[in-house]
């Protein structure tokens, strides 16, 4: 695996990977604006088949718009480049795209007025399965997603986690090769969230491609082969979790004080530290190495100060995210 | 699968879904039935003697007024049923399930066709139920042969189809169920302003155009003619023209609204 990191969306050259045909999703210069509000400012995607891709970003970053466009719900702006899903052109052959994808949106896409089982059979009918095959598929998926006991109850009575499981089960009826999951764990309790992670991991074992959006860095780290950070309609960075973490050079050391006087003298002894006057905390960039830690402690010692708490923080995706989005905002 | 058989198959799936909704939650449909039945009983048993005095130069009795009233009440039943359609379409559009349908390789129009056919079937059932009440309290058709009954049935179905497509459009543009039910209010108000309860001739001159230039009056007069042998005249063509016009308008409005890009 190469360790290259694409920092911005601009392509250095006209590079069109020879593996283009095996991409489940590819898009160049995907743009969308509503009136004069620019939502997607030209993003490029190249997602290999059989992988989990996470589009990570805060609320309002354009994640849902991206999913809506790629799943044929909303058309992209005319200025957008080529968009292909499962090899089909999104603009000219949306029905072929629809036949290849399954979508589980942010808001549950189940029919609350009918039972879980009826929802499944509805999907089977719409995928033109025979009655027998439909019943078998529905039963199998209800079993797999632990919904057998609730199968005869109206879906509106389901808990959030159950609705989400039914939602995914319905998406799987047509055996889609590409599955879009728009914030699949938003609003779920921790247990349901872990169940959902297990489900998502299981999906790709069958060769399915998963396009996932999330605002949880932990979730992207946990699940995705590749992560793209979406910020202000652009992809601020893209790569594996490890590659992204490398973007933030080193972590930091946090020094917490209880005595304001000690805090002030420490701040003077370590002028390069970031100050948080409210919590009496100093934060120094550091890779956490023994040498750097010793130098910090030496400087504190020579000033005769003792910190009440010292923590070493190695970089995680949160740091990457804040670093990237801070840059973008400052620009 | 050819596109026609795809359309038929998906539409019938959607129809089954809508009928399942109606069967599972019959209260909405039944509530809407209450209005025409109540008006029928109120006008026959409470206002009947006074109202019949105004029919046929004052010589009519109560049974003549029942005969006069029933065709209007039947069409009003359809007007009431399609208010339910507007509400259920609007409810449906706020559900994520319709977004799911849009991302599936199904016939695009099937969602709306399912609603329309389901609603027309419900209208027919409602008309049969209200008609049964009418017969129970003494309504009898005069010299209507099989042809007239068939034409009457055809008119009811055509009228229901026309109003349903308009109601579907109203449901699609309404942000929620309350707005849908408000937007569909004309479907209930128009029959009150038609020749359903009193002949147009008996209305004050300034009001007559309101009663004349709307779909309910010609449809009511036609139904009356078919069931009771009164003169239909140009009302037959007018009724058909109104129905076809409204159906085409409603269809164009609904499909263009439905196929518009989501947000």
From TrEMBL, chain A:
Major place of residence: membrane
Subcellular location(s) of the protein: Cell membrane
Domain ABC transporter: 25-257
Keywords from the named record: Antibiotic resistance, ATP-binding, Nucleotide-binding, Transport
GO biological process, one term: response to antibiotic
SMART domains (alphabetical): AAA
One of the record's GO molecular function terms: ATP binding
GO cellular component: plasma membrane
Protein name per its UniProtKB record: Daunorubicin resistance protein DrrA family ABC transporter ATP-binding protein
Membrane topology: Peripheral membrane protein
The species this protein was found in: Streptomyces mashuensis
InterPro entries hit by this protein: AAA+_ATPase, ABC_transporter-like_ATP-bd, ABC_transporter-like_CS, ABC_transporter_ATP-binding, P-loop_NTPase
Membrane-crossing residue ranges in chain numbering: none
One matching Pfam family: ABC_tran
From TrEMBL, chain B:
Transmembrane among keywords: yes
UniProt GO molecular function: ABC-type transporter activity
UniProt-listed PROSITE patterns: ABC_TM2 (PS51012)
Regions that span the bilayer: 25-45, 65-90, 111-137, 149-173, 185-207, 236-254
Localization per Swiss-Prot or TrEMBL: Cell membrane; Membrane
Chief location: membrane
One GO CC term on file: ATP-binding cassette (ABC) transporter complex
Biological process per Gene Ontology, one example term: response to antibiotic
Start and end residues of each ABC transmembrane type-2 domain: 27-261
Protein name, UniProt field: Transport permease protein
